[in-house]
């Protein structure tokens, strides 16, 4: 699978490709809000599992699963490792002492360096949050045609110029990666070097100019195409049909997200002294699950 095909949504299940762009973007936004509001690790893990199941039901290819796994592992590992070392809140329980405070030079400079249990847990929670957003973002990217997202943004009365720039930026990333691969192959053939990582690293300083020239040519062609088709004319815009069942699902998810946010705010206010006895069930439920 080429780099360009890796980021396109041409091999996803039919139901995932037929979903309206407005539905995908709205669900992505609402789930991102839930990932920020919820603090319970178990609830966050269930939300993360649900986002992975979407990829499974959409029949994402094995290569894309590999990319997703690598990105998730890097994000989780980076978050847990950094928080385990530099967790500043108290209390904190050291699991492993890497640098003793009494060690000459390094101990005096750093004040000691340890791996903290609370930092690992806190980093895991933050890593799951970012993993949820990353997983759903890739789901939208891998199951959507750029025209779907463009029509969705325009239907929400977003400026056509801004909507076009956003979608073009998303679409241009795989194109840029494919162009870089072609430039590296051309440089390798011209210099008659063997295939390998060393040859790629050797030619990296020389890909900027040809890659920039290719990007400028593509940008000029794209600009002429957009202007010639009258994309930015008001008469060319029209409202797209949004399926009724998708609207119902989105409204239910909006109501659920608003309810979760209100429950969280009410619980935080109760901790500050603004307590209502009638909302005790809401407070208990929020403490257990949110």
Describe this entry's structure for a reader.
By secondary structure, the chain is mainly α. Helix content is 72%, strand content 3%. The protein contains 13 helices and 2 strands, in the order αααααβαβααααααα. The chain has a two-stranded antiparallel sheet with strand order 1-2. Helix 3 runs parallel beside helix 12, helix 5 packs antiparallel against helix 7 and helix 12 packs across helix 13. It starts with a helix and ends with a helix. The relative contact order is 0.12. The mean pLDDT is 77.
How do the helices and strands follow one another from N- to C-terminus? Answer: HHHHHEHEHHHHHHH
Strand content: under 5%
**Stretches with pLDDT under 50, minimum 5 residues:** none
User: In total, how many beta strands?
Assistant: 2
- Give the integer mean of the pLDDT values: 77
- Computed Rg: 25 Å
Tertiary shape: flat
Q: Report strand order across the widest sheet.
A: 1-2
Helix and strand composition category:
mainly alpha
In short:
With 290 residues, the chain is mainly alpha-helical. The chain is 72% helix and 3% strand.
Per-chain topology:
Elements: H1 3-6, H2 14-18, H3 21-37, H4 41-57, H5 62-86, E1 94-99, H6 106-110, E2 113-116, H7 117-143, H8 146-155, H9 160-191, H10 197-203, H11 208-228, H12 244-271, H13 280-289
Helix pairs in contact: 3-7, 3-12, 4-7, 5-7, 8-9, 9-11, 12-13
